[in-house]
Amino acid sequence: MWAFIHKLGSPKWFYGISARMQPWFWIAAVLLIAVGSVWGLAFAPADYQQGNSFRIIYVHVPAAFLAQSIFVGLAVSGLVFLVWKIKVADMAAAVMAPLGAAMTFIALFSGAVWGVPTWGTWWMWDARLTSMLILLFLYLGVIALRGAFSSRDSGSRAASVLAMVGVINIPIIKYSVDWWYTLHQPASFTLTSRPSMPVDMWWPLLLMVLGFYCFFIALTLMRTRNEILRREASKRWVRDLAREEG
Amino acid sequence: MAFDSLNEFLQMGGHAPYVWAAWCVTAALMVGAVLHARFERRSLLRDLKRRERRAMSELSRNEVNEA
Amino acid sequence: MPRSDTLTIRESRGGLGGAVAATLRRDLILMLRRRSEIMNPLVFFALVITLFPLGISPEPALLTTIAPGLLWVAALLATLLSLDSLFRADYDDGSLEQLLLAPQPLPALVLAKVAVHWLMTGLPLALMSPLLGLMLGLPGGSYLILAISLALGSASLSLIGAIGAALTVGLSRGGVLLSLLVLPLYIPVLIFGAGAVQAAILGDGAAAHLAILGALLSLALMLAPWGIAAALRISING
């Protein structure tokens, strides 16, 4: 077990294994997202209340799921980096943060656009959207803190601590915002929660969620490999690699 | 199939601007992220190779000097 | 030999309490010598509250409805303003490094520092808030709840904010970054703090809100000192 973890922590080993894993995740992501998109856009029945505007759900929900998962991922990699000093974990965290912020932005944008036909306004202080907005600020904080340090190691460790503090706070923020919303708004209907959703609507959503996760894993592997090349540029094996590829 | 014709599909029952805006922004960001990662990789490898070439030429120059 | 053993045991046992008390005393004295640093958040609090009637409208009915949130947001910003100086002076004169080198556990020592910070900003803000509430036309009966909720809540704010202050103390321009890091984490405290005052105005008991504020505070008391200590070590050693 320990040997495995330490092997995983070695950038060189990770660079090799990720090269072999990456194509599979790309294939899975493209297939799942393609099938899910066509199914969700063209074949799923229209919603009886919202008509065709509900098809935004197929990008809104996967993006929101991913946005929350990536923050947990940030905290876990931060913990691994702080406790075991595994550099690859920090490289993954460094590339995951911008992707998480992008996913949060997608969730916010699609939610706002969805609000126009549903609520008649671009922005409602809806519990879900508000939590997403706060999550975006948390992401921006982690990214900004990492960039603010002149030494990379300090920046990495500070960002790891902040990600862990944030992940403890996210459930508290989520519950308090939900509570605040029910207090101030008469429970009008929220975008995505509905009593019963036909199976034909669920399947494409499931495919899209899985596809987004595969996309996230594939892109993180790819960019972590880039980060390895950048940070380990003076290492022997990276230089050999550059010569071979040239 | 929830739509009868391509035109109807594009109109999305009157919700076209919203549905397509959300989907297009999502697609653009995701494709952009992939392109950015590819570009990043290519430029990193190019830098590495350039650095390697310089190191090699310096090495050979030193050998010539020593000889 | 046995004699020196008892000596070391006695020393380490008295060590932690003594060190915490010494840190408390030192920080209190330092703060009391710089009175303006205690006054600044209070003046800021009063100023922000003054701006709102000027910016929105002096109409009492409107002010009464927005008063709980207004008072809470202004108090929160005043706390935020004072955070940057929490570790700054100690960092500049090197006494923070001494604190890190002390044999006593760092979380306990930083807890003492945060306690002083709360005594010198959070508590005065809470004591002053009824006066500003009066000026905003807060209905009678909610003043006590306002002060209690602010006293409880600002302790959580000091604890959470200290993590951010510790993370940014080594940076030359940490001020804006500090607010970016800390404000999102303040949201639950703000919601339940302002909620308590609102509940008191509406006549529902505010006990539930105060209980949740207390729960948040105990959670922060449990976890934040470790976060602050880890953050300080990163800022000093990096």
Write out key terms for the chains shown.
heterotrimer; B: 67 residues; mainly alpha; 2 helices; C: 238 residues; elongated; disordered N terminus
Describe the structure in your own words.
The complex is a heterotrimer of chains A (246), B (67) and C (238). Helix content of chain A is 81%, strand content 0%. Chain A is mainly α and 246 residues long. Chain A has a domain at 54-186. Chain B has 2 helices and no strands. Chain B is rod-shaped. Chain C is mainly α and 238 residues long. Chain C has one domain. In chain C, 87% of the residues lie in helices and 0% in strands. Chain C is elongated, with a radius of gyration of 20 Å. Mean pLDDT of chain C is 88; it is low at 1-13. At the A-B interface, helix 2, helix 3, helix 4, helix 7 and helix 8 of A face helix 2 of B.
Mean pLDDT of chain B, as a whole number? 86
Q: Work out the radius of gyration of chain B.
A: 26 Å
Number of H- or I-type helical stretches of chain C: 9
Helix content of chain B: over 70%
Shape of chain C: elongated
Strand content of chain B: under 5%
N-to-C order of helices and strands of chain C: HHHHHHHHH
Largest sheet of chain B: none
β-strand percent of chain C reads under 5%
Low-confidence stretches of chain C: 1-13
Distance between the termini of chain B: 79 Å
Principal-axes geometry of chain B comes out as rod-shaped
Q: Percent of residues of chain C in helical segments?
A: over 70%
- Beta strand count of chain B: 0
Number of strands of chain C: 0
**Given the helix and strand composition of chain B, which structural class is it?**
mainly alpha
Largest sheet: number of strands, sense, barrel closure of chain C: none
List the helices and strands and how they pair.
The complex is a heterotrimer of chains A (246), B (67) and C (238).
Chain A (H helix, E strand, L loop, with lengths): L1 H8 L1 H33 L13 H28 L2 H33 L7 H22 L3 H33 L14 H33 L4 H10 L1
Chain B lengths: L5 H6 L4 H51 L1
Chain C lengths: L1 H32 L1 H21 L4 H24 L1 H9 L1 H7 L4 H30 L7 H26 L6 H28 L4 H31 L1
Helix pairs in contact in C: 1-6, 2-3, 2-6, 3-6, 3-7, 3-8, 6-7, 6-9, 7-8, 7-9, 8-9
